[in-house]
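Quick one: Tetratricopeptide repeat protein from Altericroceibacterium indicum, structure tokens please.
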Amino acid sequence: MSISLPLAMLAPLLLLQSTAGGVPGSSSAPLPQDIGRDDTTLPPMRRRIQAKPTIEQDRLSVCLDNSRRDPATAIVNASTWLAEVTGAERSFPQQCLGMAYVSLLRWDAAENAFLAARNFKLDDDHVNRARLAGMAGNAAMAASHAQEALNAFDLAIGDAEKAGDTVLAGTLSADRARALVQLNRDSDAETALNKAITDAPQNPTGWLLLATLERREGKLAEAAEHIRTAGGLAPHDPAIALEAGVIAALAGDDDTARKNWHAVIDMAASDSAEATNAKAYLAQLKQEDQP
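--- reply ---
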């Protein structure tokens, strides 16, 4: 028996972003994973060049840790730091300010700080400019400023492409798609997600979001194929299992839907949105199975 799932329960998934791994500053911040501190997407030569942290980078690391534990103090310290430095070095305290504002859920201030941090970077530091613009875009998304987010993601993708970092550009394209959906530009979002899975095929988020969009458009066969790919890349991600269950249910495969939703309950925290929705879906199936 297939179920008719309420639109209110289905629509939000595309707008969610997994926070697995976390972000310095807030475990629930809708920002790319460790994007402010991780250098794994840098080309090997640049990683070697940056292997020895500078004094400013060490100071940033301490400030980012403080932004998570004591954001108010981090803001004071970063503001003092900002007054002490000039030129490209001003990017570091601006980044710390952004993360402190994230911890306080001050999304507009975070967006502005991340954009300032991006703009202070040297013109040829394309990778870090891309990362910081991406952080600004996700802060704008958290504030429900979809057009501002889109503008920031466009900046970020342009920077990533200048750096020749295809994977980073693909990851940012998935973020860009979320902004496009908020703006009711589903066709453009689908184009962005196809770029995401092409440029960053190992990132399960792109496959998940594409499957969700296709499911919303009634393309269940395509959605099923893409959610299987997402599940293969991240078998323990409850958001993927939840979406897999929704797609299966709409296709009339109740057994597969139940299997996926029970997996969500096993994997996710009991008070998480994924677990709550999975329980609601299972209850609806049970109700419809009754004579």
